Amino acid sequence: KRTSPAQTEFYQAAEEVLYSLQPLLEKYPKYKKHKIIERIVEPERQIMFRVNWLDDNGEIQVNKGYRIEFNSALGPYKGGLRFHPSVNAGVIKFLGFEQIFKNALTGLQIGGGKGGSDFDPKGKSDNEIMRFCQAFMSELYRHIGANTDVPAGDIGVGAREIGYMFGMYKKLANKYEGVLTGKSLKWGGSLVRTEATGYGCVYFAKNMLAARGESLEGKRCVVSGSGNVAIYTIEKLYHLGALPITCSDSKGMILDEEGIDLLLLKDLKENQRARLSEYIKYRPNAKYIPVEEYPQGRNAVWSVPCFAAFPSATQNELNLEDAKALLANGCKCVSEGANMPSTAQAVDLFVETKIAYGPGKAANAGGVATSQLEMAQNASMLSWTFEEVDAKLEQIMKNIFESASSTAAEFGQPTNLVLGANIAGFRKVADAMIEQGLV
Ligand code: NDP
User: Fold this and answer.
1) CB of 9 closer than 8 Å to CB of 340
2) Which atom of ligand 1 is nearest to the CA of 367?
3) Cα 51 from Cα 141, distance rounded (Å)
4) What is the residue with the minimal CA distance to atom 44 of ligand 1?
5) Cβ(16)–Cβ(347) below 8 Å
6) How remote is the CA of residue 228 from the centroid of ligand 1, in Å?
7) What is the pLDDT of residue 340?
8) Counting atoms of ligand 1 from 1, which one is nearest the CA of 365?
9) Any idea which UniProt keywords this protein has (predicted)?
10) 351 CB contacts (<8 Å, ≥6 apart)?
11) Is 371 one of the annotated binding-site residues?
12) Which residue of 13, 81, 232, 406 has the smallest Cβ count within 10 Å?
């Protein structure tokens, strides 16, 4: 029942999950008896708050802040904070809902949550970013804690923002604890956390392809986005001998047939915080296509012939027409770094055609899994090496693939990882909810 019709993204995410749960609900009546569906679609707690801050001109600015503590059956609420002008209650709710099942799939003890603000970090000075982060945390701090709710980054929230928010939390709560993940390596962060979502998404693709006797080696790959997830997807693709040839931002895309220049991309995005259009100044053989020149209603990244595609920017960036273009050009694998990047119709087509399709909640779970490894290191006051964390990440991605694919096989649709991931994640949370009673 759509009781909040404005929350379109939330209904899109919930309908996909509920649809794939049908075979499970029919086979095991206990989930209906305990009203798990009715309970799981309602967040345990939703916090909405005002964020006042002063810009560099001394003007008062007002934004909306959100934290949705969706489900704590498996552990403390865990999920990122997104700062982007498109953020609203429906977007945070869809992200929080997906997070419940994603976190369950990792096999680690973490519940699901998500938060953020409609604040736009673009064009803001460093001081403005700091003042906003401090103002945001001046309300959020009372709701979170190392054993209660542990936020992380997402779109618009990276190490800089986590640093400013951590500083304010520490001051207000008078506690130095692992309350945020994605921290700097100098004060409590974990090695591999920066790389984890992108690396994990490529590990997931590797597992999907290995099960079909294929690999990424020597293959052309397309990637969308040019933020944290996209950059480390490209890096891991190179490690595995693949050729990533595209990246994008909200203004346009780069096609570099010789392979994306990773050092240049990192410098532009991580150091200079520049637009992607700058890339062709340094790589004149590459092509920049501004969004105005994209085919009507489409994302040009998905028209580039490739073996594998890695959507790594944002929700609904790949629609049915894009999906058809990918398949027509011979694409055999789609592994989602972003959350819900493919529309429902695009997902249906990928599932129907039985390509190697890894839905975001499985393929991009490496980020939150490594956040949990950061929490474990903080709690034990230890730091693990890069190799140790990377090996754990690779194993977790393998386990997630095996759990989704064996569950899909159990329900008679062995290649349908949407069904497999949704059922495998749901089952863990639902069983914990039943055992913990009606709370
Ligand atoms: P970043 O902020 O680092 O990068 C986001 C990238 O996506 C930028 O290139 C941005 O372009 C582009 N983008 C954002 N919004 C839009 C839009 N509306 N239209 C077109 N392009 C857009 O974020 P992340 O890389 O961290 O996140 C990317 C995706 O991955 C998100 O869906 C996020 O939820 C998901 N994810 C991230 C995880 C993490 O660990 N960081 C974990 C799991 C999932 P521009 O700069 O022009 O806005």
Assistant:
1) yes
2) 40
3) 13
4) 338
5) yes
6) 7
7) 97
8) 43
9) NAD, Nucleotide-binding, Oxidoreductase
10) 357, 415, 416, 418
11) yes
12) 406
155 C-alpha to ligand 1 centroid (Å): 4
Residue nearest to atom 23 of ligand 1 (CA): 155
**118, two tokens:** 């409609």
Residue ranges lining ligand 1, Cβ < 6 Å: 86, 153-156, 197, 225-230, 249-251, 312-314, 337-339, 364, 367
User: Which atom of ligand 1 lies nearest, measured to the CA of 152?
Assistant: 40
CA of 91 to the centre of ligand 1 (A): 13
Tokens at 109, concatenated: 């003890």
Question: Exposure of 272 by Cβ count < 10 A (0-12 exposed, 13-18 middle, 19+ buried)?
Answer: exposed
Domains of the chain: 39-178 (3.40.50.10860), 194-363 (3.40.50.720)
Best of 124, 155, 223 to mutate for ligand 1, by most ligand atoms within 8 A of CB? 155
Which atom of ligand 1 is the closest one to the Cα of 95? Answer: 34
Query: Residue 184, annotated ligand binder?
Result: no
Tokens of 5: 């019709």
CA distance 63 to 224: 28
pLDDT at 376: 96
Give the strand pairing for 287-290 and 252-255.
antiparallel
Distance CA 107, CA 191 (A): 20
Which are the catalytic amino acids? Answer: 114
| Centre of ligand 1 from the C-alpha of residue 338, in Å | 7
Cα 283 vs. chain centroid, distance in angstroms?
30
Q: Is the CB of residue 9 less than 8 Å from the CB of residue 91?
A: yes
Cα separation, 170 vs 183, whole angstroms: 13
278-287 contact pairs (CB < 8 A, 24+):
279/254, 280/254, 283/256, 285/256, 285/257, 285/258, 286/254, 286/255, 286/256, 286/257, 286/258, 287/254, 287/255, 287/256
Q: What is the pLDDT of residue 6?
A: 80
From the list 231, 237, 228, 232, the residue with the least C-alpha distance to 209 is 237
For residue 41, the 8-state DSSP code is T
CA of 414 to the centre of ligand 1 (A): 30
Task: Give the SS3 label for residue 414.
Answer: coil
**Helix, strand or coil, per DSSP, at residue 223:** strand
- Which residues of the chain register pLDDT less than 50? none
